[in-house]
Amino acid sequence: MKSRIHGSGLPLRGGGRPVRKRTPGSADTRRWVGGLVGLIATLLLAPLALIMSASPAGAVDVLCAPKPGESACISGTLRTETGVLPNVTIKVTPETGAPLTATTSETGKWSVEVTQEGSYTVTIDEATLPKDLVTTGEVVVKAQFGKTSPALIEIRTQSYDASTSKVDELIQSAASGLRLGLLLALASVGLSLIYGTTGLSNFAHAELVTLGGMVGYGLINVQGINIWLGGLLVVVICGAGGWVQDRLMWQPLRRRGLGLTQLMIVTIGLSLALQYSFQYIVGAQTVRVLIDNPTVHKIGPITLTNQSYVAMAISVVVLAGVGYALLRTRVGRATRAVSDNPALAAASGIDVDKVIRLVWTVAAALAGLSGLLYALVTNGIKWDSGLQILLLLFAAVTLGGLGTAFGALIGSLIIGLVVELAPVLGMPGDFKYATALLILILLLLVRPQGLLGKPQRVG
Amino acid sequence: MDTIQSILNAMLREAVSPQTAAVAIAVIGLNIHFGFTGLLNMGQSAFMLLGAYGFAISITHGLPLVVAILIGLAAAFVFALVLGMPTLKLRGDYLAIVTISAAEIIRYVGRSAKLTDFTGAAQGIPGSQYRDPFTKLSPFGNGSTQLMPFNYHDVAGGAAWVTILGLVLVAACVTGIVAAGRRLEGLTRNVAVVGLSVLGVVLALFLAPVTNQNTGVRGWWFTGVAWVLVGLSTYAVYKLVTSPWGRTLKGIREDEDAIRSLGKNVFAIKMQALVIGGLFGAVGGIMYVLPATVQPDSMGRSLTFFCYTALLLGGAASIFGPVLGSLLFFVARAFIIAATNAYVPDSVMSTQQTSQFAFIVVGVALMLLVIFRPQGILGNKRELRFNV
Question: What is the pTM of this model?
């Protein structure tokens, strides 16, 4: 399990390059047009740009560009189950001729350019390996002109026990699945509430999750704010982002009477714009919120980082809080009433717009929290992390029943477990996200309203 | 003037590029889905990718060209059936959710290391491995041709006023096409649009003469076939949507229950629309990769969003909308990139950031289009009030 991350860490190039702040356009004829552009520019990008303007430590990777018809590259990343290995010598031996050598970079990456097609044997110079590590032998790769061939050499700590029993493996994966499920639940409850109260499938929701991770990176990593204070700030900033988003964009559009299909395409445009804004400001690399080594803690057969346990605890508490608020408080009842029938809710004196505003705020704050925790417990967050998350979120929400908050919770847990358990049960690791979709399609065939949805006609 | 000329050239290269034509074909397919039937297909890039994979893998395994194309189409056909079965009976957002997820899944599977022998994983299949059978069909032979031997260099020695006058005329042509597309009706409209388009293209080539190889990658053979396919697709869609079947499609878009009450099998008709639009997507995908590589990451979600922006720009539910939209979209994008590269100093925006900036502009443009002008340039506002 990749639960521990070694200190030498991932590349943390970030700011450095000057950041351009976009100013709102001149369109103040219609108030909210300026608002729309201003929303994206000022409220989401400018603070992010400000946060990112300090630059964290950098590292440059070894690059090898194969030329078609002339040369080929063989490259790889040296890592153990605990992290990457810098400064290890790799020997690449052709079938005939002298061997070539390469040394791994700070990020454990190495590459060799060869000018001859054919088979190459890749071995590790054991003398340069840190103590306590052993390789599991050599690999043979085929080099092809104009291509980079990956070479994967397995290295293990001697103490690492590869022969964990299937049951232990299942329990460990179930724990990771639960962790993923809880993080997804934080985001998907908000997505489902937005759907319930406004009928909108928000395709930009996963970008709100990424935003949480990115703001966390900016505040905690780049600015060096204490993690707890920084985390709180992330939630507040993201919540405020949600409030502003509804105030400046969604509410005016609702009043304008724009159809749901059209609104959905607006969210898609927003998601594209946000994604590339992240890349514009932060760069294309994975960024991490905390740089130091997370420590792991073992409970029975389960090994997870301490951060994971804390993240899971926070998720459970927050989800319980949201559940309590929905079931027991006046605001929660009002939200459910609007979800059920907005017209009737309005007629019985509920301020529908206020409820929707609240839902957007809470949903964005939850998504931000989810993104922060996601960046903490996984290796970090990237500008396009939302792509993967969105898929899982939609699978979870549809599985549970579109618009039901508790359905989203159950759906998320199921999807989290499925995604993490599938590789243990024999599904190739690359296809683990496909399993989530497969379940979604099968479920739509037999129970289109989802697990907790009302069996009404959804056609 | 040189900078302007080079920006012009970049725009025109983008405009005649076979890949622009390929996207136009995919957008024509998307128009059947979204414009005419009201199906929110968010995975048009997956149809393209599947067509491309089916085609390229078949050829690398030694199958003849025709069979390879058929296999590419078959892949898209099956994909449409699999996606349509569970979702077409449900409310529209289910199709959107399932297609966008499925498109990502196809991309993940394509770039999976387990399938390196077939798909080449994340690196993809290089074009040189599957391009030959198509290149060999070229009747043009070798060498290269400048499309307009008579160009702005020949008038008044290529003075600045020639270029400026020419640009004004091109702009007039585009305005004319738009005006004709929106004001005129029936045959006059089609003749006017086609005539003005030809005039505009000739003028544009006069201003920025393009020299290309006859047969090579991005040569005239590729470009010609791509644009002929665009023409054929446009004609096919015109015939389809003016047929009784096409009227049923629009009926489904406007009021599904009304069509059902007339005894039509709505599910079957929606499925037919999904399949046909998907097949156009696959043809577009094959054309898209012919001059390039089958690279799963270049045919992901962004490509679908490009298609939507192009469609909404040109005008959904119109015949010429997809072609006009794709052209304007890619030319505008080339303009943004070339102009920011030329005029915005690197200290403000690096070269890498300009392409990201172009993406941000696409996203914002998509939002603004839907909000302020859902009918695009050529569309009819009344036709685009539907809700899925």
Answer: 0.77
